[in-house]
Amino acid sequence: MVLASEALPRPAGLEPDIGFWRKIFGEVSTNEALVHDNRYLGIVYEKLDLSDLKSDGARQRAMDAAKARYAKILTRLAAGDRANLGKDERRVLALWAGKPGNATLRAAAGRVRVQQGLSDRFLEGYVRAGRWEDHIRDSLRAEGVPQMLAALPHVESSFNPEARSYVGAAGLWQFTAGTGRRFMRIDSAVDERRDPYRSSEAAARLLKANYGELDSWPLAITGYNHGTGGLRRAIRAVGTDDIETIVRNYDGPAFGFASRNFYVSFLAAEEVERNAAKYFGPIRRDPPEKLMTIQVPAYLSARTLEQTLGVPRETLQAYNPSLLPDIWLGKKYVPRGYTLRLPDDLSDADARLAAIPGSERRTAQISDPRPRTHRVRSGETLSGIAARHRTTTSRLASLNGLSKRNMIRVGQVLKLPGGAAAAASEGQPARQSGSKTYVVRRGDNLASIAKRTGVPQRQLMAINSIDNPNRIFPGQRLRLASNREGG
């Protein structure tokens, strides 16, 4: 096993790609975007300013228009007529050094891409990462994984434990359910992908396993996104395990932009993180979380734990994000043997649990209800089915293993999420209708709370006397209305 302290390979031929992602993470905000070639990331045609466009739709239209404009310029250049070129056409031609052939420019016209910046999200993630960084590094060290890999969640989730992808990947490390079950507990009561601690331990084991299969850290890291089987096919196709050759020359059907750029974007993220003060100035990061853990001695209801420990349910939920909504709704028990995380000042927690009477202890979990299903009829679409059953297309696609295109067929039986639990897992507001407070959950930031509750961030800061939007903590109770508003 390679020593965890060793630096990772950084091929000179990939430096332009690393530099592109360094700009995306460290210099270009979400109010900006780069128009670029999707194979040769050193070719950047323009930096777009999107700050005056407030809606996602308007921004997308602006990016699509820029993409079409540069595709048109490249198509004209590819026709071979280089006389009477405009300023933008001369600039684009100069980016392709020397005298590029018409075929080169014609191919480039089909590769124009727009990448929105991420520097503000990266900074938010860098601040949040202070809560878990020590544990992540300890987990990597225990498995002999290079410490640099502690930066990988910047690429996966911006260190947001509540992040979820369209295919249902979840948590800080964006595990899919299938891969996650190899290393964590994922069932109807617990999803450890949502726990920054357990998922970090699982990620270290997965990365170690990838290295054991591929004997190369660049490939092991790329395999985190593309799978080790896909990387073995790439090696056979190009005849080498050299990461630069694979990135430049492999054209496997599933080896798209994300897989091709996973290693270089990671290297860029690690560099920006290591030099954060250079990119963002002085930063006050979140301190490591102070908590304690105990083993749950039997199947217990959330109500029993709340009353026995004297800890509000909202705090228990914030400290234990892997416990799924059915537990807090009373439809499931907290499992026997579950490692419960609590505020570190609860010194007598073990004694309190030991005193729980036998009448409150259960020997088995509540059985799952009969699964809900929907049989696809002629003319139905996934979005229509999702709307009918009050869920989302991404949730249905995740539950049923559907592709990104969400193709369904007549007669197909789709699994449906279950009522209230599904609504909670889809990011519905965490407060009851009419509630005047919000309890901060693990992974929250003030911007996401503002979006979830409908209360502007500036108003939240004023009502709660918050002078730094990054200084909130799990279990904190925020008022959503001032006393004058009836809070």
Architecture blueprint of SSEs:
Blueprint: H1 15-26, E1 32-37, E2 44-49, H2 56-78, H3 87-95, H4 102-109, E3 112-116, H5 119-129, H6 133-142, H7 152-156, H8 177-180, H9 196-214, H10 217-226, H11 228-238, H12 243-249, H13 257-260, H14 262-274, H15 276-280, E4 291-295, H16 302-309, H17 313-319, H18 325-328, E5 339-343, H19 349-354, E6 372-375, H20 382-388, H21 393-400, E7 413-416, H22 419-425, E8 437-439, H23 446-453, H24 457-463, E9 477-479
Antiparallel strand pairs: 1-2, 1-3, 4-5, 6-7, 8-9
Helix pairs in contact: 1-5, 1-14, 2-3, 2-4, 6-9, 9-10, 10-11, 20-21
Brief overview, please?
With 487 residues, the chain is mainly alpha-helical.
